[in-house]
Structures are given as structure tokens and as C-alpha cells.
Design goal:
CATH class: Mainly Beta
Number of strands: 12
Number of helices: 4
Order of helices and strands: EEEEEEHHEEEEEHEH
CATH topology: Jelly Rolls
Number of domains: 1
Helix content: 10-25%
Bound molecules: zinc ion
Distance between the termini: 43 Å
Structural class: mainly beta
Shape: globular
CATH architecture: Sandwich
Strand content: 25-35%
Length: 211
């Protein structure tokens, strides 16, 4: 059988970012399970995304693998890491965590629309942190909404004075385990230890002790 080489697919276009978490912020692109995507992240105020993962449903477990990160000059930064990476919350999770709607950026939801006012009023604020999400890190994220809706941003680049937030790119690969929250009894995001093992070995390690 002959295979025709596919032309590269431009998967991410320029789209407005968001600075709140909410299940109704529409995805800006989709990626298949096992597929990878590059996010071009700008500034320390907005997140890039949400990225929809085809077939992801509430109760599934998403493993997000950080393939690489770098500044806009294109160079790979071995110690760079996103300050924020997560999946959209469910409506039930929003609860009483809503932040101030003032200044809410909601991606493709137009700022002057009725939808914007409604979503902003119940959206959760975004908090960054400095975690070891460097290249080769694998993060397990419970899926709460159809498509998972992954967002990331606040790219950190360490120097001698600490972490500096700069514009840059972030390459992620998405792996999906159906009903993974139940299978692995995981309800919160988990940062997997970085080992020299393959993804298979890491997943095998996760299953140890699970009857
Ligand atoms: Zn940092």
C-alpha cells in the first residue's frame, strides 16, 4: 500500500486568550487523543486555549505531556515551564469560587455580549504557580467537561534572579484514558515524577496497587 504524505495542518490560529476558568468558554482548536499541539502563549495575563480533545468525556483522565517549551526566538528552553496548565471545571465545580467579573477575558466570547456577562459572573479566577512542569513532565488531569478543554499559559523561564514570565511556545501531547478517574482513583490533578521510563512504564507504575 502506498501512503500519501500529509501536508502539515495549521492547528492553532491567533485567537483571543482567556483569564478565567469556565466550562462555557469555547475551544479554539481540537486535537486527537495521542496528538500534539503547539500553543503560542503571550504575556502573563492570559491563558492560551481552551484546546478540545476529541472524544474526552467527564470521568476520563487526560495525561498531558510537556514536549517542549521555548522563547519566541524559537530556541528550546530545557528549564522553561508553564505557570498554569489545566482543564476546564464543570459547572458544579464553579460553586462559590467565582471571581470578580471585571476585566474578564473569555476567549471567543465577545466582551460586549450577553454571554460574556453571564459567564464572567460565574467564572473562576486564574491562579498561577511555579511547578515542575518542565519538558518531559506528565500531568494527569481529570476531565470535567466534554472535550476536556485544556488551557495553559504564564510561561516561566528561570534565570539567576528566579523565574521570568515571557512570551513563547509550548508543545503538548494529549493522552486519554477512558474512565481514568475511576480506573486510577484520581480526582485531582497529579504531576507524575519525571523518570527515564517511557509513557508505558509510567502508566504501568500508576496501576501498581490498584486492584
Ligand atoms: Zn517558574
Amino acid at each position: 500500500m502506498l501512503f500519501t504524505p500529509a501536508a502539515p495542518i495549521r492547528t492553532v490560529q491567533y485567537v483571543p486568550g482567556h483569564n478565567r476558568w469556565h466550562p462555557d468558554i469555547p475551544p479554539v482548536a481540537e486535537v486527537i487523543a495521542g496528538g500534539s499541539i503547539r500553543l503560542n502563549c503571550q504575556g502573563d495575563e492570559v491563558l492560551c486555549g481552551p484546546i478540545g480533545v476529541v472524544g474526552a468525556e467527564p470521568g476520563d483522565l487526560l495525561m498531558v505531556e510537556v514536549l517542549g517549551i521555548g522563547r519566541l526566538d524559537g530556541c528550546f528552553s530545557p528549564a522553561g515551564h508553564p505557570g498554569i496548565l489545566g482543564c476546564a471545571p464543570s459547572h458544579a465545580m464553579l460553586g462559590d469560587t467565582a471571581g470578580a467579573p471585571d476585566g474578564a477575558l473569555l476567549g471567543r466570547i465577545a466582551p460586549s455580549s450577553a454571554d460574556h456577562a453571564r459567564v464572567a459572573a460565574s467564572a473562576s479566577p486564574v491562579h498561577g504557580s511555579c511547578r515542575a512542569l518542565a519538558p518531559r513532565a506528565q500531568i494527569l488531569l481529570p476531565v470535567h467537561v466534554p472535550g476536556a478543554r485544556v488551557s495553559a499559559g504564564h510561561l516561566h523561564f528561570p534565570d539567576e534572579d528566579g523565574c521570568r514570565i515571557e512570551d513563547g511556545w509550548l508543545d503538548l501531547r494529549m493522552h486519554l484514558t477512558k474512565r481514568g478517574m475511576e480506573r486510577f482513583r484520581i480526582t485531582e490533578p497529579v504531576l507524575m515524577p519525571i523518570t527515564t521510563s517511557s509513557l508505558d512504564a509510567t502508566v504501568a507504575g500508576l496501576t501498581v496497587g490498584v486492584a
